[in-house]
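Team,

Forwarding the record for the chain on the shared tracking sheet. I've put the sequence and predicted structure together so nobody has to dig through attachments.
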Amino acid sequence: MSIFLTNLHTHTTFSDGKNSIDETILAAKDRGFAGVGISDHTYTPMYTNGSIKQGMFGEYLAEVRAAKSRHPAIEVYAGAENEYCWWEPVYGLDYVIGSAHYIPHGGEYHCIDFMPEMLETLAREAFGGDYTKLARRYYEMIADMALSRKPEIIGHLDIIVKLNGGGKYFDTGSKEYLAAVKTALDAIARADSIIEVNTGAMARGYTAQPYPERHILQEILSLGIPVTVASDSHRAEDLDYAFGDMKALLADIGFKSTRQLTAGRFTDIGL
């Protein structure tokens, strides 16, 4: 039996995943999940090869619903990962994950988690080379997303650190950085959103820790913001990546439960 009942952040061949919806559901069932959420990227013009094709959201939703009928032995939930700066209108979903992969500047959308050169160009052109200011802008976007879009789940909260190995660009322990994070957390608490503990970058070898980092998780606990564990899987084999480690981490920090989607409702399940 899986340590957690559900994984709500998964990607399939409808966006940038490697497995079909059915393959993802069957893998979740094999791993002992009570349920699984399908959450492909909604259409964004910046990422047309890795998001639901324009005009195909209805087909996507219908296919998830059909898969739910084909697999009655496991709870199947319809979700989507929506992009802050290109928020697609969605309907009929059980939940939405709100994420930010881009920062707009100069009429273009600059990806912050793909190539160092892209991040460096953005920092130089938009922030005078000040990466802390770049991080502050990112967390301001997350705060606005929580309050204005009100997604049920905030995706990979501190993905801005993905390319920051060894503190290459900024110090995540600095007062300025932590103040920026606090701005986002305060907004998330007011919006009553859930923050996911995301192991996706760990599974793909980018980081050794989840999003968010431990010190941010400690602040999340102090603010009483609920968390859920998800692997942001792009391969079915990663559906429960490092979930045992996440249970131990959360318990060590002091969390008593995670918020999971079960029997159609978000419920706090004890660790």
